Amino acid sequence: MSSKLPLYLKIQQHLLAKIQTGEWCPQHQIPPEEQLARDFGVSRMTANKAIRDLVTQGYLIRQAGVGTFVTDHKAESSLLEVHNIADEIRSRGHQHDCLVVAAETCNADDEVSMRLGVRLGTQVFHTLILHREDGVALQLEDRYVNRRHVPNYLNTDFQHHTPNEVLVAACPITVVEHVVEAVLVEAAIATLLGINPQDPCLQLIRRTWSKDQLISYARLSHPGQRYKLRSSMHTGG
Q1: What superfamily in CATH does domain 75-230 come from?
Q2: Which DSSP string corresponds to 182-219?
Q3: Would the pTM of this model clear 0.90, i.e. be above it?
Q4: What are the CA-CA distances from residue 185 to residues 216, 219, 223 (Å)?
Q5: Which string of DSSP letters, residue by residue, matches 30-56?
Q6: CA nearest 159: which of 119, 103, 214?
Q7: Averaged over 7-26, what is the pLDDT?
C-alpha cells in the first residue's frame, strides 16, 4: 500500500480488500467510523469520507441507528448477451488483467468433441485464462476453439486481447447458447480462483456459432460470492 495515497483511500483499500476476498460477506457489519479513525490515525471526517464513497459505489449500505453493512455488490453480466469481460470490468471503473495458464493445441476428448461438434481426437485450440478485477480472480475461462474457423487464434497476445475479442473479429457471433449451473469445482480450479473447494461457483457453459458454424465452446467459472448473471426480456402487450 503506497504511503502517497490519500488517507481516506488507504481506508477504502483496506475495506475493499476485506469485501473482495470474501472475508466480509454480504450483511457483515463493518467497524464504526470511530474505530477506523483510531486504527488508521486519522480524523473521523476522513474515515467518514472513505465509508461514504463506498456507500455511493454500492459496496456498503448505512442503516440509521444500527451501522454500516456490506452489500451484495457482485460483478454482473447479462445472460442474454456476449460481452468482453475486460470491457465489463473497465465499465465499472476497475482494472482488468489476466493470467494465461494454457494456450495450446490438443486432441478433442469425448466432452469437447460433443460440445464443439468435431470428431473425437480432432486437433482443437485450447486456452485457460484467469481474468481478474483489481487483482481479484473473477472468472476462469476454459475455452476450446475450432481451429479450422479461427486458424490464427493461438497467435494472439492474450495479455492485451481477450478470446472474445479475437473470435468476434474473426467470426461474428450469430447464435449463442448458455447453460448455467451452481457447482463445486475441483481443487486446482479453486486454487486459481482463490477460494475453498467447498465454496459454490457459478459456472456458465457457452457455445457460439457464426452463421451455421460452431466456433467455440467455453466453460466459465466464477466465485459465487463475487459474480451474478442477469436476464431481462421485453414482451409485447
Answers
A1: Chorismate lyase-like (3.40.1410.10)
A2: EE---HHHHHHHTS-TTS-EEEEEEEEEETTEEEEEEE
A3: no
A4: 22, 12, 10
A5: PPPHHHHHHHHT--HHHHHHHHHHHHH
A6: 103
A7: 86
Q: Options 3.30.230.70, 1.10.10.10, 1.20.58.220, 2.40.33.20; which CATH number does 7-70 get? A: 1.10.10.10
Q: Which three cell numbers stand for residue 75?
A: 460483478
pLDDT in tens, 177-215: 888 888 888 999 999 998 888 888 888 899 999 988 999
Cell of 197: 473447494
* Domain positions in the chain: 7-70, 75-230
Tell me what percent of the residues of the chain surpass a pLDDT of 70: 88
57 pLDDT higher than 80: no
- Residue 185 is placed in which grid cell? 469445482
Question: Cα(212)–Cα(232) distance, rounded to whole angstroms?
Answer: 26
